[in-house]
Write a structure and sequence with these properties.
mainly alpha, Serine Threonine Protein Phosphatase 5, Tetratricopeptide repeat, 8 helices
Length: about 210
């Protein structure tokens, strides 16, 4: 049986170890936060310049990357940026010429759809919905048999985006355009400026920081 004095000594020792571990964790988190912020800032600058689309927002961290992101509140921010990156890497303006093009485009749309439902930021959800709507309008331009189906699906995305963020100018413009296309039976009014939805700027993904910063 451990005496009271002995028990208190053991308890004090455990407390010291716990404090030491907490201090080490705090230092590691502080270092990881600085590294993550610097990496995100550098990647954002490269991505929004349009010169580099294959950047990574993943920093070298002391703690496992997933742990660091979760504890620092960066997971949602990075996931959003990667979804925007997939959108641009899918080359939304280009025609689908081979199976790889279809795979990239469908993968980007699925990720945008997922974040449009799950991202905690209403502003970011509006951006992802707008991008998904733009992809659907591009699909409408490239088909004749289901053009109205794609236009209607795009309208749904733009409407949801406007409700989430009434200041989203891209969503508002694209919604008006899609409604015009629907009234015209889904027909492309000429392939010019009015008939083609504007894509969000390359900086749309980086301009919106989330709860992690």
């Amino acid at each position: 049986m451990i005496s009271g004095t002995r028990a208190r000594s053991i308890g004090a020792g455990v407390g010291v170890v716990a404090l030491l571990l907490a201090a080490i964790l705090g230092v590691a988190l502080a270092v990881d936060l600085l590294r993550a912020e610097n990496r995100v800032a550098a990647a954002d600058a490269a991505f929004t310049s349009g010169l580099e689309r294959t950047v990574t927002w993943d920093a070298d961290t002391l703690l496992p990357l997933g742990v660091s992101r979760t504890m620092l509140g960066l997971a949602d921010d990075v996931a959003f940026r990667k979804a925007v990156q997939r959108f641009w890497l899918s080359k939304p303006r280009d025609p689908l010429r081979e199976f790889g093009d279809v795979t990239r485009r469908s993968g980007a749309e699925r990720e945008l759809a997922r974040l449009g439902e799950t991202d905690p930021s209403a502003e970011r959800r509006a951006v992802t919905l707008t991008m998904r709507g733009a992809l659907l309008l591009e699909e409408a331009r490239n088909t004749t048999t289901q053009r109205q189906v794609f236009v209607r699906r795009a309208i749904e995305q733009f409407r949801r985006a406007v409700v989430l963020d009434p200041s989203n100018a891209d969503a508002i413009y694209n919604l008006e355009l899609a409604l015009k296309l629907l009234r015209r039976g889904g027909a492309d009014p000429g392939g010019g400026g009015e008939g083609r939805s504007p894509l969000p700027s390359p900086g749309a993904g980086a301009a919106t920081s989330g709860t992690g910063f």
